[in-house]
Amino acid sequence: AQAKYAELADDFGNTVYEQSGSLDPVAKKFNVQVQTSPAMSKDEISKFFKSDRFATLVFSDEVLKEKRNTEAVEVSPNNLIAGRVVEYAPEAPRSFDEVKGGIEALLKAEAAGKLAQQKGEALLADLKAGKATDTDWITPVTIDRRNAQGLSDGVMRNVFKVNTHTLPAYYGFNEANKGYTVIKVIAVNQKLKDQPDVADRAFKAYQAALGDEMSHAYVGSLKAKKDIQFNAKVLLSKGNE
After folding, report:
1. Helix ranges restricted to H, the chain
2. Cβ neighbours of residue 143 under 8 Å, at least 6 residues apart?
C-alpha cells in the first residue's frame, strides 16, 4: 500500500509542477474536486492546514506573482495538497466601514459590562444591608474545593474568600464573559477534625489566598506613592514564592 501511495504521490507532484498554470489537470487525473477557500492570511492557512510549509509556498513569488501552482505538500500522513492563488490583496489598514460593526459590538459589550457591574454592586450592597431584593438565585449546592458541583472556576476561586462570620454572607466579582456574579453562602461545615488531610489542604489554601490578598494590597499601597517605580509582576511572583 505504501509503495502504491508513493507512486501516486510522485505522479501527483509531477502533474502539479508540470502543469502549473491550473489545478484542473491534476484534479481530473486523480478524480478529485478543486475547492476554493475564502480569503485567508498566511497564519490562517498555516493553522487551518497545519502546515507552515504550505502557507509559505502559497505566499511565495512563484505563486503570487507568476500565478503558478504550489508544489505538492503532505499536510498529514498520506494526504497531499496543492494550491494556487485566485485573488490576492496586500495587507492594508481596514476602512472604518469595515471595522465599524466590530467597534460598535465592542462598545456595546463594554457598556453592558459596566452596567452589569453597577447593578451587581448595588444588589450586593442591598443584600449586605439586609434589604429585601427580588433575586433569582440558583438552587443551593454543597461544595468543597474538590467538588465544584457545576459552579464556574471564577466562583470556585472566590467563594472561599467570603467572610462567613455572619450568615448568610455575600460576595461579588466580575466574571470574564459572564458579567457580575454574586455569591451567597448560607452555611459552612467546619467539621474537619476527622479529616486531617482535608484540614491541612484547606489551611494551606487559606494561607495562599491570604498571601495573594496581602501582596495585592501591598502593590496598591506602592502605586499610591508616585516616586516609587516597580515591576508589579515580579513583585507578586516573589511574594508568592
Report:
1. 2-18, 24-30, 42-49, 52-58, 61-64, 96-128, 153-159, 196-223, 232-239
2. 149, 151, 156, 159
Task: Let me know: does 144 contact 120? Beta carbons within 8 Å.
Answer: no
For residue range 133-158, list pLDDT tens digits in order: 888 898 999 988 888 888 888 899 99
Confirm if 128 and 170 have CB atoms less than 8 A apart: yes
- The amino acid sitting at 62 is E
Q: Which residue from 172, 178, 187 is spatially nearest to 135, judged by alpha carbons?
A: 172
Question: Counting Cβ atoms within 10 Å, is residue 192 exposed (0-12), middle (13-18) or buried (19+)?
Answer: middle
Q: Give the tens place of pLDDT for each residue, 3-41.
A: 888 899 999 999 999 999 999 999 999 999 999 999 999
Residue 148 near residue 136 (C-beta atoms within 8 A): no
Three-state DSSP at 171 gives: strand
CA torsion sign for 63, 66, 67, 69 is negative
The C-alpha cell of 94 is what?
Answer: 481596514
Written as nine digits, the cell of 159 is: 467563594
Task: Give how far the C-alpha of residue 73 lies from the chain's centroid of Cα atoms, to the nearest Å.
Answer: 31
Cβ atoms < 10 Å from Cβ of 1: 6
* End-to-end Cα spacing for the chain: 57
